[in-house]
Amino acid sequence: MGRREGRDSERVGGYRVTHVLIVDDDEAIRETLRFTLEDAGYTVEEERDGLAALQRLRQSQVPMVVLLDLMMPGLDGAGVLGAIAGDGKLLKRYAFVLITASNRTLTLAFANLLSSLSVPVINKPWDVELLLKAVASAARRIDGIDDSDSDPVLTG
After folding, report:
1. Residue 146 binned pLDDT confidence (cut-offs 50, 70, 90)
2. How many CA atoms lie within 13 A of 152 on its CB side?
3. Against a cut of 0.85, is the pTM above it?
4. Which domains does the chain have, with CATH numbers?
5. CA distance 90 to 63
6. 3-state DSSP call for residue 135?
7. How far apart are CA 104 and CA 107, in angstroms?
């Protein structure tokens, strides 16, 4: 698990949420995302599956953006979001961006969950600028900055 320390008091792009948790079972994807986000000034943590991520989110008090892979063995991204949806404290502390390589159509129930949680969807392979924009937008939501003019579903 990778982690870069030291940006707790800094602002990135004018907002205070600077922590990102990457949840993906593919080590190369996590590494690429980590380098991209660290270069943009974020403190990055990693988990390789949904269950470990859910445990970390329940234990952590640090607000953060969570980049969440949809398809993982065990508890997948949909399972993590379903568990988070019922916990108001976690919903205030974290904002999510769903990343997927799948070109399957999302079920109506899952699409409604994504909409209700304001979770944008980024397709792999992603456009770096679009990814960073989605992370910044998610950080603004945690900070309480109105970001209502942004599109909740993005593609890369």
Report:
1. very low
2. 14
3. no
4. 19-143 (3.40.50.2300)
5. 9
6. helix
7. 9
